[in-house]
Amino acid sequence: MALNNKTREKGYIDYNLIFIILLLIGFGLLMVYSTSSYEASMSTLLKNDPGYYFKKQLRASIMGIGAMTLVSFIPYHFWEKFGLIAYGVAMFLVVLVLTPLGYEANGARRWLNLGISVQPAEIAKVAMILFLAGFVTAMGNSIKTNKGFWVVLLSPGFMCLAVWLITDNMSSAIIIFAIALIMLFVASNEYKKFVIFGAIAAVGTAALVLLIKLTEGSDVFGFRGARIRAWLDPEAYASTYSFQTTQALYAIGSGGVFGKGIGQSTQKLGFLPEAQNDMIFSIICEELGVFGGVCIIALFLLLLWRLLIIAMNAPDLYGSLIVVGVMGHIAVQVILNIAVVTGVIPNTGISLPFISYGGSSVMFLLIEFGLVTSVSKSIIFEN
Amino acid sequence: MRTLKINNNLSRGKSKKKFNKKMQEKLVVLYFLVLLAFVGLIARIIYVTCSNGEKYKKVVLSQQQYESTVIPYKRGDILDCNGNKLATSTKVYNLIIDTKQMQAKDEYVTDTMQALTACFPGFPESEVRRYMAENPSSQYYVVLRKLTYDEIADFLEIQENTKEHPNIKGVWFENEYKRNYPNNELASDLIGFTGKDNTGNYGLEQYYNDVLNGINGREYGYLNDDSTLERTTIPATDGHNIVTTIDANIQQIVEKYLYKFNEEQKNVARTGNGADNVGCIIMDVNNGEVLAMANYPNFDLNNTQDTSKLIGSKLVDENGFVPYDAEVITQDNIDTLLEDENLAMKNLNYRWKNFCISSTYEPGSVAKPFTVATGLESGKMTGEELYTCNGQLHVGNHDIKCHNYRKGGDGTLTVQQSVEQSCNVALMLMGRQIGKETFLEYQEKFNFGLKTNIDLSGEARTASLVFNDQTMGETELATSTFGQGYNVTMIQMISAFCSLVNGGYYYEPHVVKQITASDGSVVENISPRLLKQTVSNETSRKIVQYCNGVVVNGTGKTARPAGYAIGGKTGTAETVPRDKRNYVVSFMGYAPADNPQIAIYVVVDRPNALAQDDAKFATRIVHNILTEVLPYLNIYMTEELSESEIAELEALDISIRMVDDTVEEEITEEESTAVDESGLILNEDGTIDANGGDTTSSTPLSDEEMQDNNADTAPLTGTVLNETDGTPIVEDNGSGPE
Q1: What percent of chain B has pLDDT over 90?
Q2: Which residues of chain B lie closer than 8 angstroms to A308, CB-CB?
Q3: Interchain contact A321–B (C-beta under 8 A)
Q4: How much is the ipTM here?
């Protein structure tokens, strides 16, 4: 480690960051309770307990904060040598879904029962961040070569394919790939390639969308094709594929500037099924209005800003890349989630970090922030 | 906030392992890209809100289903005069399955199905399982309907015991009311029945439909001013009960003997019932209250669609008429005859009609007292006339025969003898004295051709079935005097007859005397309605005298019940087809003879006999009914009993109570406790206290109390007559004499 004779303050803890995280978690819990209490109280399966989802989320959040604290005390370099192993373990866990340990919920087999239920895709995201950070650091300057660029770009490929094909979870695969892409973007010298990539991706997406549009009526693209068609023409699929999206838009639109007041949403009374999950942002907008929605987005911007600061001040490349990975993770999920809710992109199953209901998600997010805190603690101040 | 110094010293440490300036630059670029995306999303949110906000607000409000559930009301009961239930509504339960909830777990299905099959014998398990497999998201599937509480009690116990049976899920019960007639056939035509949605069909159920029905309650949610969902319950308003003047005990006695008659006469001369129809009405002569009204054949109110009840009746054609050559429905041919559903329905419809008010027929000789009353009241007759009957009378172009023309006629007859012997010739001669105008005037006074407006649904209109000034010629007048040529309904005849024997007061016949709310409080008392005075007191007394003679000396001897003197008139009317073989025989009478309290009218339409023209078919029924009804009404016996009569009474277990018995000598020890002084309350104004019928519970009343009692129960008796013209001065809500 880079030690010198200058006075060194004790480890820096970014209280702003922790405050923002706690605020998001607290607000998330509030909204989970607000959105889920009605449906939970109507469900005899959940013993009519209005606090069912809230309690589960609270438990996961507390465990997550514990894990975050624990991880923050482990110097992050401890993980450097485990990068490849983490990748392997994550792959192994994804494959484990196929064994009897895996179970199905909401029509998809994505969960593992390891005492507590875990989504391997969430582990894969952390593993990808750790792996790529270590891998890029180890590569050194060779990332600037063409070969290095392609190796880094393709290294998350296996993981993405596994997550996509085995757990049938394309959105997580996209997120993992996007995290990798962002880390590569920051680490490499390139702009041109990314612009070209971006252009190719845009043209390719447009062509695909056009193709799907033209094959209307056929079943070539399965439910994903139908979702895209529903996105293009919400009215036609209002009672089927675009039901959730149109209902979410109704929720946002009916909220007005300051919303109906917390707990006053009517859309959560059965029209937005499982509103506590991916569509929670629409209920936030319904209850707290545009103002509430913008506040949440601003909070995330602030969070990303803190991550930017830490990444820039991290004592070494490995630490910075970890933080960049986390930053990418948050940014991608927030953008994609809100884009889905507001009908900008077709419906995929992406949750809003810290706010959407989901134990695995919040736990592993907090573990990631444990890493970030660990990095921030090793920042050296110079007076 | 403590500011961090951006670490820009790239030379420090191992530079290749540093987050270099290029990377920092790219990170800032990334951050700005993210910022751009966020700003775009914020713009999108604002756009959605501003462009469609109002529209979406409405959509959100409109798609709220204010889930509302109907709370059914209870249709009111129909009670007899003693409070016995003739029709009632009982709460029943529909078994509903929420397949979505039940199928949430496999053990729910297993355990719930097991409990359901154990508790409900008729539970269609395989059908339900198939439905659940096909409709996994259905939350409302009615499996069993109209279960009683007893039937569901076992299951409710299991369902509520969540500790031992935690897996009973997805079953609930929906309330409903089911119309129930505790006495099945009793007074079926009179009561009527209800169809779907509590719509009354026929009889009281139809006439008082609106009174009996209540208003459904509702449980619903709505959005209040703050757009929050609130739930509200509006309770159901139950329907009113109606208390009828019918005495279920009398009704039972009547129906017993109508049934007995049928048993005796069925299949005698032809296949089928003892008569095409037998009807009987018993009324209180002093207030128009109907005490009993029955028909045979009847039907089961709890199973109105039961076609097996039609066996023995003639087949009704597709127009709803009974043709002359109608086939008789038998056990063997019922399936083929009623194969056509429409025809079966026509036959059932015909059965559901109340013969006593809906069927018209020529009354025959029971009309004779009316002719005599017309003559006496109009002053065209003095009552002292003598008539000579040679067996026939030449009227117009016809020779109209008397019933005993073969014997050469009845000879010379007084007015009373004319009635006693039911001499047609004498009556036709009276008709000549009376004249057409006066006769028609009195026909209308007696309400023939007009509806009685009895409070029952389905009363026939007879306006076109009576003569008027244009249609009545000499012959028509002649036949009308003895009740042929025009049509009446039973209720018209007996209502008019009551006025003949009660001093001339015509009361509107009615069946309902009180309307009470579901909590028992009285909503309305329906008092007797005195409509008019048909004849004077004096004429009335004479008619009573003549009619008493009919039973003592004349054609009605067989009608007299053991121990009582009654009066009345027989009738034997020709009917279609007019081949002198089809008759409607009847007896219309009253009891007791000296102070008429109740009137009875029995009509036997085409008795099943080789010779139908015998009034005894009717008088025997009257005899049987009155033998039981008069003691039941606690009317004391006045006549000496023959040995056979005593035997008859003993066989019926009727105690003998003579009017002059001061000490109950002839009454057994046990029975004496059941009878007391208040048993029969005969008042000076001639009303009876029907409430005295329940002798086991009533306590002796003082004279004063009795009078008070009567003042309450019969407020209209003792109507004050205007001295100058003899019309009654009625204090009855403006329904003055017409």
Answers
A1: 49
A2: 27-28, 31
A3: yes
A4: 0.90
